[in-house]
Specification:
single chain, alpha+beta, Immunoglobulin-like, Rossmann fold, eight-stranded mixed beta sheet, 33 strands, 19% helix, globular
Amino acid sequence: MPGEKFQVEAQAGIGPRAHHRSEWLPVFVKVKNLDSRPLQARLWAVVGKGQYRRDEFRAYKDIFVSPNSTKEFHLCLFSSPWVGQVDILLQRGRTLTQCASVDISRLFDVPLVLVLSRSSAPILPTGLYSSSRQGRRQAVVVQNPPPETLPEAWFTYGDGSVDVLILVDYDFHQLRPNQLKAIRNWVKCSGRVVVSSADPSWLKSPFIQELIKLDVNSQREVEGLPGLEGKFGSFEVRTKLLLTDAHVRGRSWRMAGVSESGAELVQEAPSGFGKAFFLAFDVSRPPFPGWQGGTDFWQAIFDQCDISHPYNLPDSRINRRVRLALSGGLLRLPSIKVIAFLVALYLLTVGPANYIFLKRKNKLVYSVFTIPTIVVIFLIFILTLGFWTKGVSTIAHKISFVQALPGTSLLRETTYYTILSGTSGKYDITFDEKCSSVVLYADEGELAASSVTLCQGDTWSIEDFGLSIWEQGYFRTDSIKETSGTVHLAREESGVEIINLTGFNLKQALYLENGQGYEIGALSSGAKKSITLKRTPSSQFNEEFLRHWLAGVSDPFKESVLDFFDMDFFNKYRREPALLALLEEDPAPIRVSGKKEFDKEIIFFLALLEAAENGRP
């Protein structure tokens, strides 16, 4: 940029980009201020203007860079699969300067593995693959991203962006708190992480303990690993190696036949809705680099990760049903009989009635005045009727699904909402500061608008979202909320005790276990209730039971939640205890300009429960 007193470097994606279909795209920008004065500007990242699409998604952040210094920034873009370029622009006042253009390499339905390690040597062997969702074998793409480029938003790892994250004795001081938080939230939602180290202090670090609960005992030196070598092949390099004796708390999976003197070498445990694996050795140190058995070993790990079918929260299959539910009752349209009556009345008045009246008065010549007058009267009447049916009012409906992530104090909220504009205008939609993700959906998951501007400052907002009169905008927002606690389950002699420590009041709560439903009623924050587990035909949890529970919910919303909480969903956890309820307060509120509150909203809450180890939290 000749003549400019700043330099801009940009990178789209995580490391050398493997960009999957329709996902959030992280953009890393480094701005160097060469001036002796501070740089205050608006940093823009823009996707769109592709060969096949005219959609444009813009994100911006107001930045400040001190004199003669460099600062790094992160932005997120929702990228169409047809877009091949991201433009980076800097705006100062009314001057807009294009600073960089970044090409996006697209890689559809191919597994992506990130490796973070102290060692610069390759960790993974070549030849690894995963079965795609279409049943094809796909080669795994491995990337070692520089620490500063790692995203600060958890959702940029998801939706097929990253399949597995491997942490090998990594120095987490290289990462900012928001980057660590993004990794944690992604793992807890649906991510797969592999932790490898023989350093007890590293394994005891708070961040690792957040990812996988480990009881770390001792470190020892061994000559080899006969169990691992017997299963996957002998080490080519004979050397002593360090081993950590640690055990995963709670339910876990252990690789059969690879223990060493009582120490489990490979363990896996749930981490929220994700999976965390523990390797009791450092795979970056000899004899593991170059080990011929490494391909089969890592293939076994990836097969257990099930990276081709990660767990997903509500997906696009219910988008259409939710749209129908959100649209229900937006307008109080007159009945067909009323419309037919008004049309007939108008025709009779402007025609035969007007003619007969003027003929009796012998004033047919006045018809040039009476007909326009009748038209005006009917127009005023129709406009009044339109106002009565909210035809000039902006109406907003919202359905939220909140899930407590197991074993954490985190809530994931997926919100679907719609805005029906009563006039042609633009709307600002502002999100809670804890709200990390904003996705706009149409019928098949494409962007709902041809031009979207997203502000990504301390809070996030959609700015100047244009809607024509009586046009609807449909949105989906995913967010993570940190709470004071979770819902605890304690086993008692004749039943269970439920304790609500989420910080939110629950109503119409249901306890579900072994295919039975037990009504609890209201459960305020900090309250606890005991339930006697007694199987009866009336307590069998099925669609009829669910409809009875939803008796107070309007029909369109009821159909939507039945589609979300279908029996297939519950059959996955038919033996697992769960709590289903309605929330009185939205954990991640959304505000629409010109609206004090949503005209209609409902917030569903679901928590999968595990009994506390000591009976009480």
